[in-house]
Amino acid sequence: MTWRRAACAAVVLVVAMRAVGGWRWWHQRPPYGPEALHLRSSLQFVSYDEARAALGPAYQAPVASDGDQLVLGRVSLALV
Predict the structure, then answer these.
(1) pTM, 2 dp
(2) What value does the mean pLDDT of the chain take?
């Protein structure tokens, strides 16, 4: 009788673990692959004024010291 109870508990444990694993796999996978994103990125050396104009009034561009260079990076994507 005890071996049946232990076997049932083991089966319930395995089914519960598989259910949780399946749920996590289903909800944590992306809905599409990376080839569907069509990513584009670019880096460009800019001056302080260009960086400030690109960032807009909501953000403050960092001030470059002697020998420093500001780099403006852009990333865009389009789902197809």
Answers:
(1) 0.47
(2) 89
